[in-house]
Structures are given as structure tokens and as C-alpha cells.
Predict the structure.
Amino acid sequence: MSRIAIIGAGMAGLGASYYFANQGIQVDVYDKGGDIPHRVQSKDLLHGLGGAGGFSDGKLNFTGVKLPLFGVPRDKAQDFMTQLYRNLFEPFNPSTAEEVEFNKEKNEALEKLVHGTNIHYRPIRQKHIGSDNLPILMMNLQNYLENKRISFYFGQEIEDIIVKDDSCSGLVVDGEQREYDSVIVATGRKGQDLVVDIIRKQGVDFSFGKIDIGARVEVPASVYENLIRTSYDPKLKIFVNGTDVRTFCTNPNGYVVAEQDGDFISANGHALKGQKSENTNFALLNATVFDKSVDTHAYGLNIAKRISEASNGKILAQNLGDIRRKKPSADFGFTPTYSDVYLGNVWDFYPEAIILNLLEATDELGKLAPGVKDDLTLFYFPEIKLRAVKINLLPDLQSSVDNLYFAGDCSGLVGDIMHSSAMGWLVAQRIYQNMNF
């Protein structure tokens, strides 16, 4: 029987584990973080069971737009996502996930509103689990998997991948070599440093992709209310100066949070089903593209580290009016949901072109929600998505190294809970189909 190792107990790792579990395949799952009780106690929002997605606000997007990359026909993608939800999420959720209302008339009204602007709106089907329910769901899923021969090894950081004759044959854990027939790297966006080390050392075929650099934006909930009524997490792409700026991860009546990620701290947001704030937050991200030879991962990491060093480990907060005036903010016009901030000036850290794109995109977004472009709108920096390394996969979803697979955010090919889970599932399915029984 083949031995399988998965690096990372986030959504891609869990998606793969679930598929293997239901085929009767024993799997070892390693993660540098802990289980849910340990994560709660240590306040680790990024590593451990469920990964960053497991401590998010639990927005599930059912588009399936990335699935054709992994062999799922386009016309079957949404059906696949629905079945994935019914298997991997619904049975383990302590509460019924909220089906985000899709109002055809309101969506048509928003589509008319964006007509003539530089904004593209994509309506999608969504469910909302909530940050308060997700950890319980993850514990229930862990119990299910452990009863089906899936072993979790928390607090164990992978030191190396063993490759012989261009084929992966195991891992190095705590100085010990452990042999496996196949290895899935599913370390998430926050595991990009390990991924970069692996692909460079082992000669995995990859390319540098774009990197999203922007801010977490917070406004009084009333400012964004009309957009939220149309779509819980409106997906807006704003075209400015030959590039695009997108909204992402909207949290109605939610909370801004700071996440420690190794050497730097970043802004993020979440929403609870059982607790509401007076504000709404969302990410505003500029797609930064360079020549493919430029290490975009290192570029984004450098910006984030510089802010953390200057701020003594805090996220930078600055209102929109003061960004325009290129001066730090002395105070805020409304009560923010996160206040332990550094009152700095983003112009000291971000490239001018990115700031100008964010400002222009905010003005454009103000055509849909006028209050967004008010001077008091609050920006938190940095919010940078370090998914800048793109693994070049073979048709069987292997990397260029035999028996070495990548799944989820760390592959550079997907970037949300559902797509990460789906990619893990599909990689596991392909491994199982290639097994010799």
C-alpha cells in the first residue's frame, strides 16, 4: 500500500485527506501549527488545523472558475463545488451555513450601475459559515478523519524534501528521514517561504506570477450597505492605469485583525455570525506585475517587513484624506474595530504607482458607494497576498519532480477556501488513480 504525506493541515490538505480517507488510504499530515485548542490558546491565526482559512470568516465561493485547470469541465465546475461542500463542510458544521441571498433584481441594478465605469462586477453564489463556527467544524472534521486512518502530526516543521533521481521519496522531519511514495505540499499562502526553498533546491519547474499589494479598508457599515444587500462579498475589479485593483474578502459588520506572519505583520478581516460591529471592512488589492524573472515574492516580503520594522510589529493605519495629503493621521472620524496601530505614512513604504492606483480605484468605487471616498475612510497596511510563485503542473497534476505535488494557495493557482479544498481533493484523486493495487 502506498504511503502518502501531506505538508499542511489547511483547506487543501484537508480536502486531500478527506478524499484519501474515503478510499481507505492511510495518510500522515504534518503541520508546524497546532490543533484548534492550541491555536485558540496561542492566538495563531495562520498555522495549524484549518490553516488561515480555518480562522477566517468562512465565506465559501462556489464559482469553480479555476477547476478546468485541474481537469474538471467548465460546465461541471459548479456541480463539483456543490458536492464538495456537501461532503467536506456541511456534515461537520455545528450550525447551518447561511446561504447568501442572490437577488436577481438587485444584481441587475448593480450591473447597470457599473455600466460606464471602469468597474467589472461578477455575481457569484456564496455561503457564510462564520468565524465562530469554523473552528468547531474543523475539530469535527479532524475527528472524522482520524477515525479513518488519517494521522495528524502538529508542531512538526518539515526540514526538507527527499528527492532522488528526479523523484520525491520522502521528508526530513526532526532530523529523521521518513519515506513516502507521494508527497503533497499544501502549506498555504503563509507557507510560501518553504515552497520557495523546495522549488529552488529541488529544481521544481515554476514561474513568478503577479502579487497583490494593497490595504484592508474599513468604513461605517452604512457606507457599504447597498453593495452588501446586493452581494454579501461583492467581487469588483477596477481597471486603473493599465492594471486592475480588486475588492476581496468583504466582512459586513466585521472586524479588522492583525496577523503575525513570521518576520512581519499584516492586516486582514473577519466576520462572526453571532457578533456584529458597526463597521464593514474589505481588502483593496493592486495586481502588481513584473517581468517573469522578477522575484515578486521577495518584492512583497520586503515591503511588509519594512513596515513591521518601522512600526515595532504593528499594522499601519491612515485615513484616506491623510493618504492624499501624504501625512500620518492624528485621529479617526469613527471608531475602528482595531486600534493597536502605527500612525505612519504609507508613502514611506509603498511604491508611488501602487498608492496612486489604490487612490484612483477608491474614487472609482465611490461611484457605487459614495462614502468610500470620504476623507475618513480608514486604510490598514500592509495587506499583501504573497501567492507570487506559480508551480507549473503536468497534466496528471504532478510537479516536474515525480511524486511531488502542490495543492492550494501555495501552488499559486488558487486563492480561496473552496478552490483550495477542491484542488487538494483533485490532486488526491489523481494520486489514487495512479496507485498500483
